[in-house]
Write a structure and sequence with these properties.
The chain is mainly β and about 800 residues long. The protein has 3 helices and 46 strands.
Length: about 800
C-alpha cells in the first residue's frame, strides 16, 4: 500500500503545529450529591458572571453528579443550583486566571427541603429522555423503562426521528445511509451483520445515543443519512465499581440478554471492561405473493410462497481497556474489543405456482438451513495530550479491525409438477468464508482562539482489504454432485481513503457560528478471479470531494430559552464492500441477491432550520437532495427475482418535525415526537422510468408516570403510516408498550417489567413497484410481543475521577461491511 504524500504531510503537520496557538480560557468542575449521599444526575447547574445575577452558562450534571463548564474567559464566577426538593445553593466567588486555569470545586451537598411535598408523593429529579444540542440530539435510554431487556436496535427504534425496518436497517428522518458509531468508533457493518451486532448489545450497556442529522467536519463525511453514535457505559468513579443486569424475556420463544460492566480507577491508571451475553430465539413467518400478467394486463400466472424462519442466536460481546496517565495532561491507552456471534436459521418453504385461472401447476418445497459464524476483533491505541491552556488538545489514534465470517448453506429443493414431467429434487451446498482487515490512523487538534472562538483540524488515512470467497455445489439424481460455477466466485477489494479537515467555532453575545471544510480522497480497486465459465474481471476508481458544513444559532432571549438554529452539510455514502461483488447468492430457489461493481457513491446536501423553546417545543424543517442514492432494487428475469443495489438518479425529501416535553400532571411527564415526510425518487431503472413519491406521518408518544419514590411506570405508543422508499412501498404499522419499575436494595438495584407490542401490531408488510406487468407484495409477522423482566444492580465507590478517553483512528469504514 502506498499512501498519498499529502495525507502523510497533513498528518505530520498536526504535530508541528500542536504548540502554536493558545487562549486565555479556563474550566470549572464539580460534583453534586444530596445530604443522604445520593448522586444527583440531571440537575440543572447555572454559572453566574461576577455580578452574581447574569447567567454565563448552564449545564446538566452527569449520572454520577459531576459537571463542568469549559472554555470560560478568565474572570470571577458563581455556581448556582435551584431544585424544587432541595434548598437553593450558591457558591462563593470562583476565580479563573492564567495561574489557576482549572478549578475543581469541593463536593456540593444539597440539603433536602422538607417543606416541599406533593400529596405525600415525592418526585425525584430524573435524567431527561431527550436533550437538544446545537448540532445533535442526545437520548438517555435509561430514562425509559421499556428499554429494559432490550438491545441497541430497540433503543434506536424508540429514539426521536429514528426508525428500524423489518430487515434491521436504520433510517433517520426517513433517510437510509445512516452511519452507526459505537463510542465514537464506526461499527464497519451493514445489513444483517449490523443488525446482529446491535442485537448483541444490551440496552443496559448503553449510556447515551447521539443523533446527528448534519455532523460537523470533524466526523467522517460518509453516511448520507447522518450519524448515530451509541455511547456505552463507563464509570468515572475512583476505586472498583460497576453494574450488572440480568434479563429474561418470553414471546413465542425465550431470550436472555445479560451484561456486566467493571471498572477500576486509580490515580495513575484506569482499567475498564464490559461483557455481554445474548441467547435468543425468534421467528419470521413470511408470505410472498407474485402475480404475472400478459401485455394486455390479463392474468398469466401467480406464485405464492410461505417461509417460516426460526432463528437461534448466541453472542458474546466484550471490551477491555487500559489508560495510563503519563502526567496530569498526558494519557496513553489501549482498548481491545471482540464479538463472537453464531446464528442458526432453519427455514421451511412451501410454494405454489398457479396458471391464469388459479389451477395449481407446481408445488415447490424447500427444507433449508443456514449457519453464520461471525467474529470481530478491534485493537485501538490512543494518545491524548492536553496543554497549559484549557481546551488545547491533541489526540492520535491507530486502529486495527478484523472481521471474519463463515456461512454454511444447505438447500434441499423438491418440485412436484402436476401437469408435466418437470418434477425434480436437488441439493445445493454453499460455503462462503470472508475476511475484512482495516487499518486506520488519525490525529485531531483543538485549540481555543481569541474572542470566544475555537479551531479544530485533523487528518486521517485508512486502508481496507476484503477477501470474499463463495464455493457452491449442486447435487442431482442425474449428475451427482457438481461444482456450481454460476454462483461460485472469489472476490477481492482494496480501498484507501485519505482525509483532512478544519473547523472553526465562534460565539458572540447572541449568535454562535460553526463552519467546517473536509476533504476526502478515495482510491479503490476490485477483482474477481473467475472460474471455468466466468471470466476474470477487475475494476478501479478514484474520486475526491470537498464537504462543507455550517451552523448558525441565534439566542432570541438572554437566557437562551428561545433559539433558532440553521445548518447545512454535504455528505457522501460509499457502497458497501459486499455490494460491489458482482456474483449471485441464492436467498431461495426463486430469489437471488447480486452485487453491482458499477455502483457510484451517493452525494447528498442537507439543510435544516430549527426553532427551540425550552423543552416545551422544538420544531424543525429540513430538506435533503441526493444524487445516485444507493437503494435495493428488484429485477425479474424468467420469473426469478434478482435483488441488487443500484443508483437512483435523484431523490428529494422535505421533513417537518415537532418535539415537545411537558407535564400534564405533577406525576406525569409526556414526550411527543412527530414528523411529516415527503419523499420523491426519480431514475431510469431496468429500462423503465421510476418516479415514486409519497408522504408519511410518524408519531411517538412516551408517558412516564411516577407512582411513588420507589415505583414508576411507562406507556409508549408509536405509529408510522404507509411510506415510499424508491421501488418499495411499506405498509403502515405501530405498537403500544407498557412497563413499570421498582427501586430496591437501598436504591442500588432496580426491577423492571415490560410488555412490548401489546396488541401485536408491529408487523411489516409492503409491495414492490416498477415490475412491469408483475405485482408483488409480502407480509411477515415476527416475534414482537415480549414480556420481560430485568434486574440491575450497581456497586462500588462514589467518588469522581478523571475523564477517560475513548479515542479511535477508524471512523466510517466499519459501517460498510456486509460479510
Amino acid at each position: 500500500m502506498k499512501l498519498p504524500n499529502y495525507a502523510l504531510a497533513a498528518w505530520l503537520f498536526l504535530f508541528v503545529s500542536a504548540m502554536s496557538v493558545a487562549q486565555n480560557k479556563g474550566t470549572i468542575k464539580g460534583s453534586v450529591t444530596s445530604n443522604d449521599g445520593n448522586q444527583l444526575g440531571g440537575i440543572l447547574i447555572t454559572l453566574l458572571q461576577s455580578d452574581g445575577t447574569t447567567i454565563a452558562k448552564t449545564n446538566l450534571s452527569e449520572s454520577d453528579g459531576s459537571f463542568s463548564f469549559e472554555e470560560l474567559p478568565f474572570s470571577s464566577y458563581f455556581v448556582s443550583i435551584t431544585v424544587n426538593e432541595f434548598e437553593n445553593f450558591i457558591s462563593s466567588s470562583v476565580l479563573l486566571s492564567e495561574q489557576n486555569p482549572i478549578v475543581q470545586l469541593p463536593k456540593i451537598t444539597l440539603k433536602k427541603n422538607e417543606a416541599i411535598q406533593l400529596n405525600e408523593v415525592k418526585i425525584d429529579k430524573k435524567i431527561p429522555f431527550v436533550v437538544q444540542k446545537v448540532d445533535k440530539t442526545i437520548v438517555n435510554p435509561d430514562a425509559l423503562i421499556s428499554n429494559a431487556g432490550g438491545n441497541a436496535l430497540d433503543v434506536l427504534s424508540k429514539s426521536p426521528g429514528v426508525s428500524v425496518d423489518e430487515n434491521g436497517n436504520v433510517k433517520l428522518r426517513g433517510k437510509s445511509g445512516v452511519t452507526i458509531f459505537i463510542d465514537d468508533k464506526p461499527t464497519y457493518l451493514t445489513g444483517t451483520e449490523l443488525e446482529s451486532y446491535l442485537k448483541s448489545l444490551p440496552s443496559n450497556a448503553i449510556k447515551q445515543v447521539e443523533i446527528m442529522t448534519n455532523p460537523p467536519a470533524k466526523y467522517e463525511a460518509s453516511g448520507n443519512g447522518g450519524i448515530i453514535n451509541i455511547v456505552t457505559k463507563r464509570s468515572k468513579l475512583k476505586g472498583f465499581n460497576g453494574n450488572a443486569s440480568l434479563n429474561y424475556g418470553q414471546g413465542k420463544y425465550a431470550r436472555t440478554m445479560d451484561n456486566v460492566n467493571l471498572n477500576y480507577n486509580a490515580p495513575k491508571f484506569a482499567i475498564f471492561s464490559n461483557l455481554s451475553y445474548t441467547n435468543a430465539e425468534t421467528y419470521h413467518d413470511l408470505t410472498i405473493e407474485r402475480r404475472f400478467k400478459n401485455p394486455d394486463l390479463s392474468p398469466q400466472s401467480s406464485f405464492e410462497q410461505n417461509t417460516y424462519l426460526k432463528s437461534s442466536r448466541q453472542s458474546y460481546n466484550g471490551r477491555l481497556g487500559f489508560d495510563y496517565y503519563l502526567s496530569e495532561k498526558s494519557t496513553i491507552g489501549i482498548v481491545a474489543k471482540g464479538l463472537i456471534n453464531t446464528n442458526e436459521s432453519p427455514r421451511y418453504n412451501y410454494a405454489t405456482v398457479r396458471d391464469a385461472i388459479g389451477t395449481i401447476n407446481q408445488i415447490v418445497t424447500a427444507d433449508n438451513f443456514e449457519k453464520v459464524d461471525f467474529k470481530n476483533g478491534t485493537i485501538t491505541l490512543n494518545y491524548r495530550q492536553q496543554f497549559t491552556k484549557p481546551e488545547q488538545l491533541l489526540t492520535t489514534d491507530f486502529d486495527y479491525v478484523t472481521y471474519s465470517s463463515t456461512i454454511d448453506q444447505l438447500y434441499k429443493n423438491a418440485v412436484v409438477d402436476l401437469v408435466g414431467p418437470n418434477s425434480s429434487n436437488d441439493i445445493q451446498n454453499g460455503y462462503l468464508p470472508s475476511t475484512i482487515n482495516i487499518y486506520a490512523l488519525k490525529s485531531d487538534y483543538t485549540t481555543p482562539l481569541k474572542n470566544d472562538s475555537k479551531l479544530d483540524f485533523g487528518a486521517k488515512v485508512s486502508w481496507t482489504k476484503t477477501d470474499n470467497d463463495a464455493v457452491y455445489t449442486k447435487t442431482t439424481q442425474a449428475n451427482g454432485t457438481q461444482p456450481n460455477y454460476d454462483l461460485s466466485n472469489h472476490f477481492f477489494y482494496d480501498e484507501v481513503i485519505s482525509a483532512a479537515y478544519v473547523n472553526y467555532t465562534q460565539s458572540f453575545k447572541k449568535i454562535d457560528i460553526q463552519a467546517g471544510l473536509r476533504f476526502e480522497d478515495t482510491e479503490l480497486k476490485g477483482k474477481q478471479l473467475g472460474n471455468p465459465i466466468k471470466p476474470y474481471s477487475e475494476f478501479k476508481n478514484n474520486y475526491n470531494s470537498l464537504f462543507p458544513t455550517a451552523y448558525v444559532s441565534y439566542k432570541i432571549d438572554s437566557l437562551a430559552t428561545k433559539t433558532i438554529n440553521l445548518s447545512y452539510g454535504k455528505r457522501v455514502e460509499r457502497p458497501f464492500y459486499k455490494d460491489l461483488n458482482p456474483f449471485s447468492s441464492p436467498l431461495d430457489q426463486f430469489t437471488y441477491y447480486e452485487g453491482n461493481p458499477f455502483l457510484k457513491p451517493t452525494f447528498g446536501h442537507n439543510f435544516s432550520l430549527t426553532y427551540n423553546y425550552t423543552e416545551l417545543l422544538s420544531t424543525s424543517f429540513s430538506y435533503s437532495y441526493g444524487k445516485d442514492e444507493i437503494k435495493e432494487t428488484i429485477e425479474i428475469v424468467d420469473g426469478i427475482y434478482y435483488s441488487r443495489p443500484n443508483n437512483i438518479g435523484k431523490s428529494n425529501q422535505y421533513i417537518l418535525s415537532v418535539q415537545s416535553r411537558f407535564n400534564p400532571a405533577k406525576w406525569l411527564t409526556t414526550i411527543v415526537y412527530s414528523e411529516v415526510n415527503y419523499s420523491r425518487f426519480k431514475s431510469q431503472l431496468y429500462d423503465q422510468t421510476l418516479d415514486s413519491k409519497g408522504t408519511y406521518w410518524f408519531i411517538n408518544a412516551t408517558n412516564s408516570i411516577q407512582f411513588s419514590k420507589k415505583w414508576s411506570g411507562e406507556i409508549i405508543g408509536q405509529y408510522l403510516s404507509e411510506s415510499v422508499d424508491a421501488q418499495f412501498t411499506i405498509g403502515d404499522f405501530g405498537f403500544v408498550s407498557i412497563g413499570c419499575q421498582k427501586k430496591i436494595l437501598n436504591d442500588l438495584g432496580t426491577l423492571k417489567f415490560n410488555l412490548s407490542d401489546v396488541f401485536f401490531t408491529n408487523q411489516i408488510r409492503g409491495r414492490i413497484n416498477n415490475l412491469g406487468t408483475t405485482e408483488a407484495n409480502w407480509f411477515g409477522p415476527r416475534d414482537t410481543r415480549i414480556l420481560s423482566v430485568t434486574f440491575s444492580y450497581r456497586f462500588g465507590k462514589n467518588t469522581s475521577n478523571k475523564t477517560k478517553y475513548n479515542g479511535t483512528g477508524s471512523e466510517s469504514e466499519q459501517n460498510r461491511v456486509k460479510v
